[in-house]
Amino acid sequence: MADTSLGTAAQLRDPDFMPPLARAVPLGIQHVLAMFVSNVTPAIIVCGAAGIGFGSDQGALGFPDMTYMIQMSMLFAGIATLFQSIGFGPVGARLPIVQGTSFAFVPIMIPAVAGLGAAGLAGLMTGIVIGGMFHFCLGFVIGRMRHALPPLVTGLIVLMIGLALVKVGIQYAAGGAPRMGKPEFGSLAMWTPALVVVIVTLLVKFFARGFLAVAAVLIGIVAGYLVALAMGQVSFTAIDRAGWFSVPMPFKWGFEFNLAIVLGMCFMAVISAIETVGDVSGITKGGAGREATDKEISGATFADGAGTAVAGIFGGLPNTSFSQNVGLIAMTGVMSRHVVTVGALFLIVCGLIPKIGAAINTVPINVLGGGVIVMFGMVCAAGVNMLSEVRWNRRNMVIFATALSVGLGLQLEPSALQHVGQTAQILLTSGLLPAAAIAITLNLILPEDLGE
Questions:
Q1: Residue-wise pLDDT tens digits, 26-79
Q2: How far is residue 345's CA from residue 94's CA, in Å, rounded to a whole number?
Q3: How many CB atoms lie within 10 A of CB 8?
Q4: 86 — phi, psi (to 5°)?
Q5: Residue 414: helix, strand or coil by DSSP?
Q6: 146 with 280: CB under 8 angstroms?
Q7: How far, in Å, are 38, 74, 316, 411, 437 from residue 79 at the CA level?
Q8: Residue of higher predicted confidence among 271 and 308
Q9: How far apart are CA 69 and CA 275, in angstroms?
């Protein structure tokens, strides 16, 4: 429910309204807290897949590479949010849209770096830059693309993203890749903090109200962190080694063109753009009670692409609009884009201070695992919710069944593609791209009344 002490009802629905600074600052930080865990988690997962995350050889040096990528996740989430809230030229919806590192790209990024170490990050970052530029160009045509992605297709894609990630959550909760094959993997000592995170998150989500419910995962991770600290699983040495200030380094990981990564990033840019359309519509409906304009939708897509491309140049990951913050706007009733700008500035400051990234690194991997179990399950649930809008006739059931079987099958048995080239393996082993390609193609070519 809107707090009318901030302003009149008309002012609260106005994106250009600026609440008193004493109220705008905590409202902006509230937005950051709601998205903080989701924003930094993809960087931790990608670094883990590249072998430079928890328990890697670089761990003796205080996780410098992982700390840097976490920093970039915060810094460029803030910068991309400014692109949206302040805007420049045609870029930006000039709405209270919070940007953050996208989970949607993770199933494509994991096979791109797996087994390659830091050397695989050059190709990944190059793909992110090119994919961001492609994403930017989608702003010119986004309105004409929406018909090709009905709930049958988008719901399947979101479900596949979640299914591709749930394994990561269980692995993290059991102790993570560094402990796999060792006696401590899956031990009670590993599972206890993870289960505390899950239980506290559920209790807060269902029995708390207002912002506490929105920040349930963050609160759960804090609870699990305290349990892990009491069990001696937390080390603070990385914080001591980290500096107080650093600036991003362009092309820190190098530059390398990899066609498979570029194609994967461009395809996922389409999915991300459609997600942003939904978020923009959700903000204008929930906060202002109106439909989003074409200018707002195209501006938001331009900002998505620009934010992703700039992040990739400096070693960050793809950015997209964050749906949980859409819900927060509907809950608070405050439509002011300037509130989100305050949150963006807070993120930028955090991204320039390595000690904050190092502090995040002190969160044990099993504690993070408890959080991502819930988050990735919610991704799956969001996909199922989209699919609930589908009319389940025989045509749509066959499209869904075929796409899901091929996509999930390749995800579960990637060795089935051992005889195809590396490019095809990167594109297909996540299962996401083949499932999406099948669903989109069949949905476009099969008549609606087929099999009736």
A1: 777 777 776 777 788 888 888 877 777 655 444 444 444 677 888 888 899 999
A2: 16
A3: 10
A4: -95, -50
A5: helix
A6: no
A7: 17, 9, 12, 34, 32
A8: 308
A9: 24
